[in-house]
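Subject: Interface between my chains keeps coming out wrong

I've been trying for a while to get a sensible model of this assembly. When I model each chain on its own everything looks fine, but I need the whole thing in one frame so I can look at the contacts. Pasting all components below, labels as-is. Any help appreciated, I'm running out of ideas.
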Amino acid sequence: MQDPIEESEQIPMMQKLLDNPFLLLFIGVATPALLYLVWGLAEIFTIPVR
Amino acid sequence: MSSLSPPGKKLWWKEPIHRSELIWISLVFVWGLVMTFMMPYWHVVGKQNLGTETYKSTAEQFQASTEAFVEQYTVRTEGPRNFPVVAPPAGGDVYLISRLWDWWPILQLKKGETYRFHLSSLDWQHGFSLQPANINIQVVPGYEHVFNLTPTETGEYSVICNEYCGIGHHLMIGKIYVVD
Amino acid sequence: MANTTFRTCPDTGLKFNGATESLLKANAVAAVVFLLIGGFYGLLVGLTRWQAVHLLGAQDFYMVLTAHGLNVLIFWIIFFEIAILYFASSVLLGCRLATPKWAWAGFALMVIGAVMNNVVVMQGQSSVMMTSYAPMEAHPLFYLSLILFAVGALIGCFVFFGTLVVAKSEKTYEGSVPLVTFGAITAAIIAVFTIVSGAIILLPTFLWSVGLVGEIDALAYRLIWWAFGHSSQQINVAAHVSVWYAIAAILFGARPLSEKVSRTAFFMYILFLQIASAHHLLVDPGVSSNFKMFNTSYAMYLAVMASMVHGLTVPGSIEAAQRARGHRAGLFTWLRKAPWGNPVFSGMFISLVGFGFLGGITGVVMGAEQINLLVHNTLYVPGHFHATVVVGTTLTFMALTYWLVPVLFRREIILKGLAKWQPYLFGLGMSGVSLFLMGAGTLGVPRRHWDIGFAATGGVTHEFPAAAYTMLALNGMSVIVAVIGGAAFCVIIVGSLLFGKKLGDQKMDEQWIATPVTDEEYAADGGSAYAIPGTIVLAMIFFISFALYYFINWKYLAETWGIS
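Reply #2:
Try treating it as a single job with all components included. I did that and got this:
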């Protein structure tokens, strides 16, 4: 049996990320919010007035 | 251990990927790149790329521009409600109003000429659906959408509304004539 | 305390927490009720579109079409998804449900919202379609009902996340969560983005409808509403893919070919699936081509890649499990020996094929920025999503229900002969609906349109080709087949819940969950089970169809008017 602390250090970064639902929740809301909502709204709000 | 239980190998990230999966992943990744490339490529070589030039505008402004356009270039009237048929000069500006529940005016264009279309709605959203050429563009109130359109065949074309706009939605039909 | 009591299912060994079990039942029953209502409206829509029948008048048609979309696209599916979230957390992780009272409050809000919405729409003042595009105005209670429903669903999502915390802190599992739970996490994350976007746009629209806000910008409404409207369908994709993996495990004891690949594919969903909301804005004014191209491609098609990976690994994991269990001969023995008479399997497999070939390919093709010019707002669009959401999600959920009734409700399925045929009736009928609607859309027939014959326009008409009328007639016939399949489902499930033989704590003769395939079984014959040649052949057929259809559409596009 390995020391639990040592074992957790061996876990690769990506696995740690995928094991963390709240970090995923943040990324999964922030990414589309930036790429789709913020970018899209920025374009709509800068449409020139006739 | 199945998909219903935690992974058997604790450090599953370090497990090798099977060859069958690797082949497929590589193939679909490359296919994704091909499809990513196609859109900008078509902007360069293709003739069908909807322009996105847009102005914030009001129903009053757009109606005034369209009325001025109709006054200048009307050649005749037709149909049950005597709609003007407007023949703008080749290469000129064209205004088309969508409103509850018609497209106004009727247009007469020349084959092979490019027109600068101005499209907007005076009330709710509508859908510009040119049949049978099958070109479909969203029409949004408060915004004047400007793009170039080049008819490639002569004939009588219908403009159908394909965005639901209330109880008269299915009554909303306009015409574009393309002549030599 | 009900909250900490557990029942161990004698047939599956799964541990059901008392509170979870009641909530699963309540959500599943509510789901089926709204499927029944929405499905009936679907029949009326299909029979009205069939021009020779033209069942409903215009006013009723638009009202019923609004109700159809909301009931089946939102209420049936989200109730079922909340059940899936609770199942994937509390049941699969073997822990109590976090804050069952909040879960019940969420459920109550969802029921109130869904019932209120049906009442308001049927009063006829809110025939605005599911999209309810401002400045077209519905009754204020229409928006309020959707907000209540959405808040309820959001509470459900947070109960799910809370349950993950409970399981972790009470150490009810070791290592990482099961793949099916990870898929459910993906669905829940997309759901949070979806519902928050819905709130951002529906709250001001509600205030506008009661006169407290002056104006709603039509273009901004479209952008934000689609972050809600399209992403809600992406919850479905993540949820039903998880259920596919679950069914592969339930019936075959399958494990994913690779945890890393399948989880990374779900991660691509988490990052990029929602931005495909831009599919709906491709022919809109005001947003740039760069925005359109990047978002419609799900960031260089990485989320499409994820779907194609699931499309390989789900049948691939079944093939590997079947081969490991001895069905090694030839390319397709593993598939021939699958339980085609079991609706849990046939429903899932028809769904997999229909979602991929009919829904997936067409979705990506019409999502190309320029190709969208040809099909935007035509019947092609509903044709596409009847393949993704109905053949894909709805049929998958039906398949799972056949398993849930005995395992969760402890009732035997009645009318087993009919149940055997039900997925075929529903799947084939709905595939017909999808194909014929897309066919009509290709001919330019608009969606949400009461009369393509233009009988009442005073002589100004457009003549659609005769083939369009044929397509709509064939669509009507397919609707009838699909509705018979859907009604059969409701009769079987409701009948089983009311009259099915009570199973109690007795173990059944049939095996209700397959013994997981072991390492040794997979390793036998030099690990050849993992070669999955049959699945590779199927995948290549898929790929070739996809590529051909993709380039054919560019060719169609090149033939129409010039536009720039």
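Reply #3:
Confirming on my end. Chain A touches chain C through 24 residues (CB under 8 Å).
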